[in-house]
Design a protein that fits this description.
Blueprint lengths: L2 H6 L10 H11 L2 H7 L1 E4 L5 H7 L3 E3 L12 H16 L8 E4 L17 H7 L2 H17 L4 E2 L23 H7 L2 H6 L22 E5 L13 E2 L3 H17 L4 E4 L3 E2 L2 E2 L4 H11 L5 E3 L16 H11 L4 E2 L4 H13 L5 H17 L19 H14 L1 E5 L16 E5 L6 H5 L19 H8 L5 E5 L14 E7 L19 H9 L4 E6 L8 H6 L2 E6 L6 H7 L49
Parallel strand pairs: 1-2, 1-11, 2-3, 3-4, 5-7, 6-8, 7-10, 13-14, 13-15, 15-16, 16-17
Antiparallel strand pairs: 8-9, 12-17
Helix pairs in contact: 2-14, 3-13, 4-5, 6-15, 7-15, 8-10, 12-13, 15-20, 17-20
Length: 613
């Protein structure tokens, strides 16, 4: 029998064989080079069909905003991914590659996809069922683009709002983060009763492999510095930062991404104790551990130097798949040399490849490697946009309502004669969506299909109401105008990762001054669009008639007007402490010195009742 005939009839291609039997059969047929190829993840911009086919590359990814072309639709993405997959299937053993993407609030890289609120907004809803449904919808839209692997959710416990990734976290409270890990079952499907603990699970072609990230302690770094150092005891690391991973693992999460950060001075990407002894051995995680973007390069100083040593320390520590993402020839060359010299033992390579193959088989890639075009019509559909709108309205936190609590300012009158709408964020979809949207860092303007706050206001008000929009009103704006009330939307410009680290947390674009200017002249609702609490001076709070924390709500601005005009009641509660001044940071609820502007869990209804559990 020829080798090709033998491969066609072998166990690893038999869907009726057990997953473990298929893994062992395939592993026994693989050369060292093919095994190392499987451990390699490369960026789509350097991926060529010949490299994928001839080097048996295990995975391709899109870095943030790395699209086939600008405003590419889901069908264009599916064409691209299928092209890469075709090359993988032409390799000697025909092992499918697994394509990964950061779909962290919907399939946010893809034009026309539904963009859900960022995680901090979902944390404000405290609604585990909603998180699950968002997982279901996101999986469908990601799979429609031909992609079976999502680098989400971020289950960091954010202990300091100065951190540029605060908005990617559900809360500063471990228990609330644990509750919201229900999104994992939404993304992957719910494992059946009796599913072995720690074993990866994907329910079918409309689900994706998820990724719990960033292991571990990324939200606890000193002064909230991104990729910084988390200085805590093992007991606190376990209790505060590790706990959400237990929930993800019990739901069969397929992969875990290591954190750029360090624990007590030791980098996570080379931490054998945490990656292998704790995550794999103690917690029983059977999926694969993936590195973060260029993380191995960052293990040495200067970055990118002594690469061979960086590979050795990361792989021996327990990294299974390396997000290279560009220098893959060098990575493969150094890896082969490390294995041949015995510096990386063959048993470590086999363990990594077994884990990668386990996820690929569980995800159904051997049976269904190509995109399912029947899902394309679901992208950005009415049902998904309604779900996003529900998430937006449930995430709105009402912080103040009326200068006199006995006389609530909200809900606003839909039939008011003349309404002023102002502020940098009133008519900017990009600002509303935040980072990780269309591009890596996010940007301004009509970046995708959606509804701005101004669009939503115009849609909500009565036919006789006049809406006047002026982004930056001056005193002249008010001359001879009789505005019933004003809605001013201000906040942060989009940012990601270290670019979002901020030790001042002042409302950008002179937002506080703008609110003040308007509120001095007209009764004013201020809406803050931000990935975290920002400084709100007492004088500003006194001036405004109402204040809403709207977080980064995404593409469905009508969720904001749903509560502002009283069609729905406010439900959101702070998932994070609202500090008075940055000098108080980091703040810890329960400590005697805890003196916030608004405590974690705070939120009002429109009749000024405190929301509670």
């Amino acid at each position: 029998m020829s080798e090709m005939e033998d491969i066609k009839n072998c166990i690893y291609k038999d869907p009726s064989a057990s997953v473990e039997a298929r893994i062992q059969d395939l592993l026994s047929r693989m050369t060292v080079k093919e095994k190392i190829g499987q451990m390699t993840q490369i960026e789509r911009s350097v991926a060529t069909p010949s490299a994928i086919r001839d080097l048996s590359i295990g995975s391709v990814l899109s870095g943030g905003g790395s699209a086939p072309f600008e405003k590419a639709l889901s069908s264009d993405w599916a064409d691209m991914v299928d092209g890469f997959q075709k090359a993988a299937l032409e390799s000697r053993l025909g092992i499918p590659m697994i394509y990964g993407i950061d779909a962290v609030h919907g399939n946010n890289n893809v034009y026309g996809a539904t963009v859900f609120p960022h995680n901090i907004g979902l944390g404000a809803t405290r609604d585990a069922d909603l998180a699950y449904k968002i997982g279901v919808a996101t999986a469908l839209e990601v799979r429609a683009s031909g992609i079976p692997y999502n680098f989400a959710p971020c289950v960091a416990v954010s202990k300091d709002p100065r951190w540029g990734r605060c908005y990617e976290c559900y809360s500063e409270d471990t228990e609330l983060v644990r509750k919201m890990t229900s999104i994992v079952s939404g993304l992957q499907g719910q494992p059946p009763h009796g599913h072995p603990k720690g074993y990866p699970f994907v329910a079918g072609r409309d689900k994706v492999a998820a990724c719990a990230k960033h292991f571990v302690g990324d939200g606890g770094t000193d002064r909230g510095i991104n990729e910084g150092n988390t200085v805590v005891s093992y007991g606190d690391l376990d209790k505060i930062h590790m706990a959400p991973y237990l929930d993800c693992i019990s739901q069969g999460v397929c992969t875990v991404m290591a954190s750029f950060s360090s624990w007590n001075g030791d980098k996570m990407h080379s931490h054998h104790f945490l990656l292998t002894e704790v995550l794999k051995d103690k917690l029983g995680f059977k999926g694969f551990v993936i590195s973060d973007w260029l993380a191995l390069d960052k293990l040495s100083d200067p970055v990118g130097s002594n690469y061979r040593n960086c590979i050795s320390s990361a792989v021996n520590a327990g990294i299974d798949m390396v997000m290279v993402p560009f220098r893959y020839e060098l990575f493969l060359e150094d890896m082969i040399s490390l294995v041949e010299s015995g510096e990386i033992p063959m048993v470590r390579v086999d363990d990594a490849v077994e884990r990668i193959l386990r996820v690929k088989i569980v995800a159904g890639l051997f049976e269904h490697p190509m995109a399912d075009r029947s899902l394309l019509d679901i992208v950005g559909c009415k049902l998904h946009r309604e779900l996003a709108r529900e998430a937006v309205r449930k995430s709105m936190v009402l912080l103040k309502n009326g200068k006199d609590p006995k006389k609530p300012f909200l809900p606003l009158d839909k039939n008011a004669k003349k309404i002023l709408v102002a502020g940098t964020h009133a008519d900017d979809l990009g600002y509303q969506c935040g980072g990780w949207t269309a591009t890596w860092a996010g940007t301004s303007g009509r970046i995708t299909i959606g509804t701005t706050i101004l669009d939503a206001i115009k849609e909500a008000v009565g036919e006789t109401s006049e809406v006047v929009y002026e982004q930056n009103p001056s005193p002249d704006t008010f001359a001879g105008q009789d505005f019933t009330f004003a809605i001013v939307a201000v906040g942060e410009a989009p940012y990601v990762e270290s670019g979002g680290d901020d030790d001042k947390l002042i409302i950008p674009f002179n937002g506080a001054e703008l609110i003040s200017l308007v509120a001095d002249r007209v009764p004013t609702l201020a809406i803050l669009i931000s990935g975290r609490p920002l400084v709100v001076e007492p004088s500003l709070l006194d001036k405004t008639d109402a204040l809403i924390a709207a977080w980064l709500p995404g593409s469905e601005g009508c969720g904001i007007t749903d509560v502002v005009f009283g069609d729905y009641e406010f439900r959101g509660r702070l998932p994070i402490t609202w500090f008075r001044s940055v000098e108080q940071l980091p703040m810890h609820a329960g400590k005697n010195s805890y003196d916030p502007l608004f405590p974690i869990g705070f939120g009002l209804t429109s009749n000024n009742k405190y929301l509670s559990n």
